[in-house]
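for the writeup, i need someone to sanity check this before i put it in the appendix. the sequnce is what the collaborator sent (i think, or maybe the updated version? ugh). structure was predicted straight from it, no edits. if anything looks off just tell me and ill rerun, i have time this weekend
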Amino acid sequence: MIFVANASGAITYVSPEWSTFTGQPPSEAAEHGWFRCVHPDDYEPAVTFLRRVRNQQSEYSLRLRLRRADGSYAWVMIGAVPSYGPPDRTFLGYLGSLTEISPSGSEPMTAYGTMAHFIPPPSNATTPPGTPLEAVADYLLMAHGLIEQDGAKEMLPVLRHALTMAGVLLARHSTSSDPSDRFH
């Protein structure tokens, strides 16, 4: 699942897989509505962590439990990288992905986040990208994580520019024929 958040941290786009996974329409996930799907025990740590990440405009990875459409919880990994644009490399927000890492929320794990380091979520066949553009964004996010691990830092500026463009295009293409699904 792909998402775009603006500079204040508010969600402006979620891919259609969000609704399939959580049962929450995109219009309800907008802004900070997606937090209604976060497990109560993970809510405060997630909000505190994401506020700190946003204030530092840092890339991040975050593991927490999300409520599925059937009411059960699943562990997910969220990863995002910051986007910058003109003028003067203004912070625009985040392009990120979210992947289920365990179908049950009852495993003995805890919610946690890693700031200044993006670890791409593992792929999961139950949440494949919905459009070619979302697939491109997903692969760009994975490539970003691989470059971080491999040490090919010279490629990061080009990759970050591509991620910014993917986020802009996703936001631009997020309009739908259903007005209730439009937000950004």
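Residues 175-184 have pLDDT under 50 and may be disordered. The first helix runs from residue 17 to 22.
thx in advance!!
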